[in-house]
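BACKBONE STRUCTURE TOKENS:
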Amino acid sequence: MHFENNSFSDQQGFSTEDIVWAVGIWSVILTLSPVVVFYVLMVA
């Protein structure tokens, strides 16, 4: 679905899609960081 009226998102500094991307990326980072630390500790 694509909406042509982007006036609401243009008024804000960041749109809802940017917030969803940021939350998704941070959730992946926070989920994988303990796994990476554990892997590094086991290998090192």
